[in-house]
Amino acid sequence: MxxxxxxxxxxxxxxxxxxxxxxxxxxxxxxxxxxxxxxxxLDNAIDSGANNIRLExxxxxxxxxIVKDNGIGLSKENLALCAQPHATSKIGSELDLLxxxxxxxRGEALSSIAAVSRLKIQSKQRQAKExxxxxxxxxxxxxxxxxxxxxxxxxxxxxxxxxxxxxxxRQFLKRPATEAALCRQVFIEKSLPFIDIHFSFFSxxxxxxxxxxxxxxxxxxxxxxxLEKSLALLHELExxxxxxxxxxxxxxxxxxxxxxxxxxxxxxxFTNNRKIDEYSFVQAIEYGCQxxxxxxxxxxxxxxxxxxxxxxxxxxxxxxxxxxxxxxTAIHRAIHTSINRFFRSFSFKAIxxxxxxxxxxxxxxxxSNDFSIPTxxxxxxxxxxxxxxxxxxxxxxxxxxxxxxxGENRSSYAQASQPIKRSHIxxxxxxxxxxxxxATKKNGLEEKAAASFRYFGSYASLFLIAEKNEKLxxxxxxxxxxxxxxxxxxxxxxQRQSLLIPQLFTTKDKNEDSYLESIQDELxxxxxxxxxxxxxxxxxxxxxxxxxxxxxxxxxxxxxxxxEPRDLLRKxxxxxxxxxxxxxxxxxxxxxxxxxxxxxxxLDDPHCPHGRPIxxxxxxxxxxxxxxxx
Length: 630
Fold this sequence. Notes:
By secondary structure, the chain is of the alpha+beta class.
């Protein structure tokens, strides 16, 4: 039996609530904590056309919240109405809901704030005479008062004693420090898209944040996250609708993998300057980063989407935290593609720089009067100790070649240094012995290519140690082989297998049907054949030969998250490469290790499919610095 139970089965008299109580209850849908007041007041300040906005909070906003702006101000007539329920200048008819461009539009904010606090607004119109302004004081249960006052420009809005007249709500407020942190977060979110406005934030009289007008989203994003010194690690991308008359466009600020996080807290989605919760766009950002962020790490990013107001509805959440899109498929795809293309070119640029360095080294050898392969004693005076119990086993030392690189030394070195051709680094390598046998059979590596690095040995049967261009490379053999296998897989034509009994699944609406029709051919290229058998009904007839998993769940994911067909193939390739790659602790003989390193240095992207780097580099200067040598 419940200790506190509602009385049921007893008819009670229905009564109309007093206006004051009704306003307090309605206000609770909009204003639940101090940060909600901050959100609404900042929206109004932004809509005023201000280019300087100042937020002040006291005791976490519980005691007092003040927002000052230098906007257009309010006339006496508008000031008298602004705190009344459902009074707004933003919309006048139902049709206006289809073209909302302002931050506020419902006419609920100031009325709700006045219902749960003591509201005071001082405002001066831009065209008004010097210091000629009006002041409104509004509090639930009392008649509004308007009097002349003196302020220099814009508006000053104060909300004092939040929920002082509503104890049932006030008791659930957190400590001032907690409420202040939430106010701070809202301040940051509101300031991010409006780079042409100077925002400042004060808590208990102390300046906490200051964001001057910025030249770019990247600059404002860096200020908001305290990354001013890491501006070079942030990148700004853009994309837009490909239609003749574009209906949307976006900019994305995204950080390098070195700034990655373990959570999604710093992925921000803005639509028409509103911060919203839109998982499909968050997922599009993450999909674009696949393969470049290791171990499930998440990027720091902000999407700034501008879209025709007719294609999005913000009037579905009391705090406007959500939006409903007519069709977000094309936007999702463009976000994913833009980010993926950027990181692909970003990695390729790094490889090009490395290749240029390699070419310079090669030419140095070609034009030297004393041409020879770099030998052990150029930078390492003694061979490493090979002990029985040692984890460091220099497995390829070999005889030192002569100056002219002729005869037996040349032949044996070249043979031991042959690469494993892509067609041989595949699933046939069931274990390291088979990998080793295959590597020793390969021939044809040019001698000068062999001279581009020197192999010293392995550590812990996992890391291969090599030197190239006076830098020490520590190479993860599993990650390197995994990337090679992954690239192979993605370059092959997808092989399909027919289902004995086609799998039937249904769609929810015409938008889902349209999406499947738009990707049907691409799905087939990636190994999945689907056919529409009736309105809202589809059959899966063929699947990729290596697909493992629930097919019904697969297509639910495709429809809900707008998964790209290429991403399906990528998931299969990642799973395949991870399973087939040389494992940690597997021993590679000399020829196999050299061949794997050669293949690794030829990769366009030095990361495993999950985003982990294949190698780490220690320069000669860094090594000397670590051991305090000059």
